[in-house]
Amino acid sequence: MKPIKRALTAIAVVAATMVGVPSIANAQMDHSKMDATQMASMTDGEVRKVDKEAGKVTIKHGDIKNLDMPGMTMIFTAKDKAMLDKVQAGDKVKFAVINDGGKLVVTEIQPVK
């Protein structure tokens, strides 16, 4: 009977641990950073390509703090295609980006003089 009790105890311990794992993972992830309403901070970057017709801009950027994203080069969708009229490839910029349902959207972009 003791081996069965030990096995049940072990299963109970593992089950209790497994229940806690998702809670710990969720506690470490800041879900507000994924929300489109999150206030986007300005990030430094360099425009690599502008596709005004598609409303897209490729930017080599530093860390995007409000999305907890490291620096890299990415293609973003412009919230308004007209904002792409003020930038061109090679421009140093400051820009704001949000995660809108999994789509990264530039809400503001300004050339840096």
From TrEMBL:
UniProt KW rRNA-binding keyword: no
Segment forming the signal sequence: 1-27
Top-rank taxon: Bacteria
Keywords of the record: Signal
Transmembrane segment boundaries: none
Alphabetized InterPro entries for the sequence: CusF_Ec, CusF_sf
UniProt-recorded name of the protein: Copper-binding protein
Organism: Curvibacter symbiont subsp. Hydra magnipapillata
